[in-house]
């Protein structure tokens, strides 16, 4: 479970920082239901830009932000895009919630909040004496650095050297200390090695998204309900919530599947990964280019017992579609193919891992022969804004784009997807994947066999889910003791 033990001295110093900086911490309930946010905060948010480094933007860690760069508030249903059959090639309704309209332009700002908030309001993390370390394959460290900046915390971002230049530029712009580890997205162990080195120094506290249950809890308590709200908003008579697909970075987002299955027990839950690094599919390894997902291990916080399917995506598919969606030639071709203008304008909302998520949904729809009354949902972690350099690299590698090249990319990398390199997971398949956690977490990272067994046989997941209310109570008490909200 998440440790919610109070450390009075650290908590008091965090309260002092909150008073000085005017910081109010949002609850998970307020992120889930923004209509519960106090009116004085809403009034002030109308004067704050979505990406401003302002503590009020903690309240915009929500799927329900209005899609406005300046002064927007909230809406009843999350921002989403529905991808039509003319684009996907399947009749199923594929819908994706949009991460672009979070602060930082990525939903990982929520995952990092879920890891930081428990230690902040309990005083386990002391803002006056410690640095927050954010190990990541890309966007999580951006979210952690942003939340750290809002809270007056020194942030240390650790990410692979092979990530896009835009990520490094952004981290430097916000004042984060940046450590680049060898390799690309799939080189997670190198990240762990660096964090273990820093752990030896008490001034560093590591917020490891791959094992922090606050990451899982945030998605269970916020992303899961948001997807259910989206389905309720778009459902037509006879529609079924048939499935949900999420590529595994930290496996935080797939934690929302626990909530989805409580609400829609027949729903199929799939985890995606890169074909070039098929760890879940066949214990494989390798390098890949789907930025934001990490492989060669099974995250501690992945509830494998609740996962119905693994779907592998060729990283070349996501790269080629990134170019198709974000060039004039590509959009002209799609327009001529029957994709409506409103959809074309939103295709830049799909970053590389978001495209991979959508491809997982298409493969699931083909595998289960889903119909126009079946809804398959996913999320778009970030947008194309972080990948301009990747599009330029594709231009250099493959030459100028043309209508013919666009047609080939659409046919070969989306319409032509097959149901290979994927598998339904039976009980023993899931246990095989779960058992892989032993080699990373027990042998290397100090977890115990008893903890590992509890994740499979015990009540660990239900116990963690039950902590949402307790964490919100601690946040409310912290805000009351700080007195900032009362002074608005």
Task: Lay out the secondary structure.
Elements: H1 8-21, H2 28-32, H3 39-45, E1 80-83, H4 85-88, E2 93-98, H5 108-122, E3 131-135, H6 139-150, E4 154-160, H7 165-173, E5 177-181, H8 188-199, E6 204-206, H9 213-234, E7 240-247, H10 256-263, E8 268-274, H11 279-282, E9 309-313, H12 315-325, H13 328-336, H14 341-346, H15 352-367, E10 374-380, H16 388-398, H17 403-415, E11 422-424, H18 427-435, H19 437-442, H20 449-457, H21 460-465, H22 467-482
Parallel strand pairs: 2-10, 3-4, 3-6, 4-5, 7-8, 7-10, 8-9
Antiparallel strand pairs: 1-2, 9-11
Helix pairs in contact: 1-22, 5-6, 5-9, 5-22, 9-10, 12-15, 12-17, 13-17
Task: Walk me through what this model shows.
With 488 residues, this protein is of the alpha/beta class. It contains 22 helices and eleven strands. The strands form two sheets. A seven-stranded mixed β-sheet has the order 1-2-10-7-8-9-11, with helices on both faces. Helix 6 links the parallel strand 3 and strand 4 (154-160). Helix 5 crosses helix 9 (213-234). The model has no long low-confidence stretch (mean pLDDT 93).
């Amino acid at each position: 479970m998440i440790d919610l033990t109070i450390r009075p001295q650290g908590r008091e110093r965090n309260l002092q920082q909150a008073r000085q900086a005017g910081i109010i911490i949002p609850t998970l309930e307020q992120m889930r239901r923004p209509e519960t946010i106090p009116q004085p905060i809403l009034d002030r948010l109308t004067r704050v830009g979505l990406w401003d480094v302002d503590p009020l933007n903690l309240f915009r860690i929500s799927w329900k932000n209005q899609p406005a760069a300046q002064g927007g508030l909230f809406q009843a249903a999350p921002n989403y895009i529905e991808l039509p059959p003319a684009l996907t090639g399947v009749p199923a309704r594929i819908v994706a919630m949009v991460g672009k309209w979070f602060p930082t332009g990525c939903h990982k700002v929520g995952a990092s909040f879920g890891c930081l908030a428990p230690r902040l309001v309990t005083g386990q993390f002391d803002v006056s004496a410690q640095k927050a370390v954010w190990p990541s394959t890309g966007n999580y460290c951006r979210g952690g650095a942003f939340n750290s900046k809002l809270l007056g915390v020194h942030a240390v971002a650790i990410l692979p050297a092979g990530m896009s230049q835009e990520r490094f530029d952004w981290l430097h712009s916000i004042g984060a200390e940046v450590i680049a580890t060898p390799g690309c997205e799939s080189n997670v162990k190198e990240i762990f090695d660096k964090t273990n080195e820093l752990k030896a120094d008490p001034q560093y506290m590591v917020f490891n998204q791959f094992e922090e249950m606050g990451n899982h809890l945030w998605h269970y308590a916020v992303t899961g309900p948001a997807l259910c709200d989206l389905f309720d908003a778009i459902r037509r008579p006879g529609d079924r919530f048939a499935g949900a697909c999420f590529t595994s970075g930290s496996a935080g987002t797939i934690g929302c599947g626990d909530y989805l299955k409580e609400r829609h027990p027949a729903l199929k839950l799939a985890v995606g990964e890169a074909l070039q690094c098929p760890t879940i599919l066949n214990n494989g390894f390798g390098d890949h280019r789907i930025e934001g997902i990490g492989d060669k291990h099974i995250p501690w916080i992945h509830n494998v017992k609740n996962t119905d399917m693994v779907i592998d995506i060729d990283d070349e598919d996501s790269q080629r579609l990134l170019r198709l969606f974000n060039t004039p030639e590509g959009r002209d071709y799609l327009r001529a193919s029957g994709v409506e203008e409103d959809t074309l304008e939103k295709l830049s909302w799909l970053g590389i891992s978001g495209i991979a998520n959508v491809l997982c949904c298409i493969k699931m729809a083909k595998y289960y022969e889903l119909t126009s009354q079946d809804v398959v949902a996913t999320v778009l972690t970030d947008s194309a804004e972080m990948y301009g350099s990747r599009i330029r690299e594709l231009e250099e590698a493959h030459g100028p784009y043309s209508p013919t090249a666009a047609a080939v990319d659409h046919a070969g990398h989306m319409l032509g997807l097959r149901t290979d390199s994927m598998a339904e997971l039976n009980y023993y398949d899931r246990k095989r994947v779960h058992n892989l956690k032993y080699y990373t977490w027990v042998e290397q990272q100090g977890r115990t066999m008893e903890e590992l067994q509890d994740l499979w046989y015990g009540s660990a997941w239900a116990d963690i889910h039950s902590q949402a209310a307790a964490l919100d109570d601690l946040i409310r008490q912290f805000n009351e003791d700080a007195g900032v909200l009362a002074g608005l």
